[in-house]
Amino acid sequence: MQFRQLIQFRPFFSEVSRTQLMVFTALWISLLPNIATLRAFANSPSAGEGLLAVAFTFGGWLFTLFISFWLVTAFACVFWGRSIKLACIALLLLAATFGYFSFVLGTLFDKTMFMNMIQTDTQETLELINVRLLLWIALLGGLPACWVGWVKVRPAPSLVRTVLVPMAMLAGLMVVTAAIVFAMYPRYASATRNRSISFDTITPANVFAASVHHAASLYRSATVRAPRGEDARQSYALDKPRLVVFVLGETARAQSFGLNGYARDTTPRMRALGGFYFPDTESCGTATGISVPCIFSGFGREGFSLRRGLGSETLIDVVHRGGARVIWHDNDSGCKGICDKADLLDVTGYNDPRWCTESANCFDEILLDGLEKKLRSGTKDTFLVLHLKGSHGPSYYKRYPPAFEKFVPTCKTSDLSACDPQAVRNAYDNSILYTDHVLGEITTLLQHLSDQFATAMIYA
C-alpha cells in the first residue's frame, strides 16, 4: 500500500487550475522581470523614507501586478483551455527579455523604442546578445516557462467560471490598487511628472502597448503623401552643376566633439577644414525612425510628428522635382521610407573584406567605394545622402578600424555594464574620431570633383 502511494505521489503544485496558472504568471512577471520598475518606485524621490517608502513601493508593485494580470487575462481570452500554457510561456520569456534591457541598460520601451526594434537589422540585433542576457532569460524566463510547460492544468468546471473568476480577481485587484494609489496620489503624480517612474518599464505590457500605438499611427497616416514644393525649380544657374553631399550621422553626441569644446580632440580633420559648426541644434529624437524623417520633413523639431511626416513629401521629393539627381547610400538601417525618389544603394548586408570585419558589419568608408566614378557619370545638379553607421551602439569598438583606437583601454563587448565606464567612453570617442576621418575623406573626394561640380558638404 505504501509503495503504491509512493508511485502515485505527485510533487507539490504539479497540478493547477487555469486561473491559478494565470495568477502565477502575473505574479512572477510583476516581480523579477520587472525589477527595474520596482527599483524605480523604491528610488523615487517621492517615495519618502521608512514605512512610507515601503508603502509607496508596495503600491507601485500592486500597479505592476495589475497591469501584468490584465495582460495575462487579455491573452486568456484568445488562448482557451490548456492552450493558455503557450500564452503564459510566451509572456514569461518576453518579460524576461525586455526586463533585462530595462534593468541593465535603463531602456524605456515606448512607441519610439518599438519603432527602433522593428527597424533594427539582423546584425544590430545580434550585437545585443551576450552571455549575461542569455543567463538572465534562462533564469527569469526559462525556468518558470519550463514549469508552466510541465505542470498539469485541470479541466475547467464550467465556461462561466473560467471567465468570471479571473475577471472578478482583476476587478478586485484594480480596486485595491486604486485605493492605495489614491491615498498617496500626490506622491505618485509627482514621481510621474518628474519621470522617475514610467509605464514604459512595465514589461511586457509596455511593448504590446507601444506596438498598438505604432500600428494605429501607421493606420491613421495618409497612404499618399501630401505634395510640397510643387513649384520647385532651379532659380539660377552656376558655371558648374551643384554637388551637395549630406552626411547623415548616427548616434553622435555634440558633447563628444572636439569642435564643441570637448577635452579630447576627436575632430582634428573637421577642425582643419575650417568650416562652419552649428552648436545650437537638437535631434528630433533618439530613434533613427523619428530623427531621419524629421530632418528631411522641414517641420522642425517642435512641429514634427511621425504621422505628419509620413503624410507629407520630404526634401528628397522636392529636390527630385526640381530636376536634380538624388542618390542615397546607406550603411545603417535604411532611409525610413523617405528615399523613394532616390537612387538607393544599401550596403548593410555587404561582406567586402576590405571594409567589413564580419558579415553585415562594415566601416563607413565603404560608402565612398566607387563613389567618384558614379558621381562623374552625372552632368546635372546632384544631392547625395550618405547615411553612416557612425557611433551606433552598443558595440562601439566595431565602428572603427584598429588604426583609430587612439583612446584606450576600450570596452570590447556589447554588454556595456560589464565594462568600466571610461572604457566605454574610450570606444565611443574612437568611433567619433573615425567619423571625423570619414568626413575628411569625403572633402578630399569633393576636391577631386571640383573640376566638374560646385561642391558642398553638410554633416548632421
The ordered string of helix (H) and strand (E) elements is HEHHHHHHHEHHHEHHHHHEEEEHEHE
Q: What share of residues are in beta strands?
A: 5-15%
For the largest beta-sheet, the strand count, sense and barrel status come to: 5 strands, parallel
Number of helices: 18
Rounded to the nearest angstrom, the radius of gyration is 27 Å
Structure description:
The protein is α/β, with parallel strands linked by helices and 460 residues long. The chain is built from 18 helices and nine strands. The protein has helices spanning 2-8, 18-30, 35-43, 51-76, 84-104, 111-119, 122-127, 131-150, 159-183, 185-193, 205-220, 268-273, 288-295, 300-303, 306-310, 315-321, 371-376, 421-448, and strands spanning 15-16, 152-153, 242-248, 325-330, 343-346, 356-358, 361-362, 382-387, 454-459. Strands 5-4-8-3-9 form a five-stranded parallel β-sheet, with helices on both faces. The protein has a two-stranded parallel sheet with strand order 1-2. The protein has a two-stranded antiparallel ribbon with strand order 6-7. Helix 2 (18-30) packs across helix 4, helix 5 (84-104) packs antiparallel against helix 8 (131-150) and helix 6 (111-119) crosses helix 11. The longest helix has 28 residues, at 421-448.
